[in-house]
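step: validate -> pass
step: tokenize input -> pass
step: predict -> running
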Amino acid sequence: MALIGYARVSTEDQHLEMQLTQLQAAGVERIYKEKISGVQQDRPELVAMLDYVREGDTVVSAKLDRIARSTRHLLEIVEVLEKKGVAFRVLNINLDTATPTGKLMLSMLAAIGQFEREMMLERQREGIARAKQAGAYKGRKPTARAKSDQVVELLRQGMTRNAVARETGIGVASVYRIQREQKTWQGG
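step: predict -> pass
step: emit ->
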């Protein structure tokens, strides 16, 4: 039964010292540390920590936003921990999933996160509907189609499809599609 810590800062010019001090004061024996953005999908130290922990351990983080990038990500992490029989503590909000109160708090956080997401999506749909009624919403501009003439001309000049894609800033698949649609250029 070990206390395992996780500390993270987002940029190289930020410092881990405060989190490390808090984790050590809480009795954490081993600390996984990273200097990487929270939005990064690939956080090697977080993955290593989740792999390392064993039944009976407790993962400790100084703050909730240091370990998870979103409510959904937090719940995914906690689910992994629960399956391994590992508790989770967050020092600054006194959350501890080893207690009934901690489990309740986590459930409330999950519910609030889901509610926030649904409200955001509803506001987005309403905003798009209002913009469409006002004639202000046209959707995303078709960037590749706007460059059709340029694509055809570059292909006629003998450029490869990959080179045309790089030159115009569109995908190779779009170059192929434009070529098919135009049917004005034949060859390679």
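step: describe -> The first strand starts at residue 3 and ends at 9.
step: cleanup -> pass
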